[in-house]
Specification:
The chain is an alpha+beta fold. The chain has one domain. It is 45% helix and 14% strand. The chain has a 4-stranded antiparallel beta sheet. Strands 2-3 form a two-stranded antiparallel sheet. α1 crosses α5.
Length: 175
């Protein structure tokens, strides 16, 4: 009398393991893309809020042109956005914290720039008022931010990369 053994063969088990591995790989890639888009969305939202705060401060104080970063009445001698916020109570009423840097791969904080620098890009050079981050290493997140709020081109527009690792966000093209 023959007895039958029931169970899975090694080939069937290998097929199941391969299918599970493929599904896991697809899930990890999808999660990473979702995480990058979420970080980019948060950064874009905070950059827009920062731009609105600077414009509201300018309008409220009645200045006729953008201030230079050496203007002690604005910066208190510190051009970092966090320094501007902490040293200027009137500005702090418009902006409580600097934009996030999460996902951009930098330890630097956002800084204000209006000292006559010229940044070349697109078909002409831009001289204006910017906030910027130095040492940006994750350009894929920077690209996602640019896609969300600008022209999708990191070499020109309102958001651009200069010198390979300096991320600029233009507050105004006029000094």
């Amino acid at each position: 009398m023959a007895t039958s053994k029931s169970g899975f063969t090694i080939v069937e088990l290998l097929i199941v393991v391969v299918v599970i591995a493929i599904l896991a790989a697809i899930s990890v890639v999808a999660y990473t893309n979702i995480q990058t888009r979420a970080q980019a969305s948060a950064i874009a939202s905070e950059l827009r809020a920062t731009e609105k705060a600077f414009n509201a401060y300018k309008a409220t104080t009645g200045v006729s042109s953008w201030w230079f970063e050496s203007d002690a009445s604005l910066t208190g001698g510190n051009v970092n956005i966090s320094g501007i916020i902490s040293n200027n109570a009137e500005f702090r009423s418009f902006l409580q914290k600097p934009p996030t840097t999460t996902g951009l791969g930098t330890t630097a904080s956002w800084a204000y720039d209006n000292d006559g620098d010229t940044y070349n890009g697109c078909s002409n050079s831009t001289q204006g008022v910017n906030i910027y981050l130095s040492n940006v290493t994750n350009l894929s997140t920077a690209q996602a931010v640019d896609d969300a709020m600008d022209d999708g081109n990191l070499s020109c527009g309102k958001m651009r990369v200069y010198g390979g690792n300096l991320l600029l966000y233009s507050l105004s093209n006029q000094r």
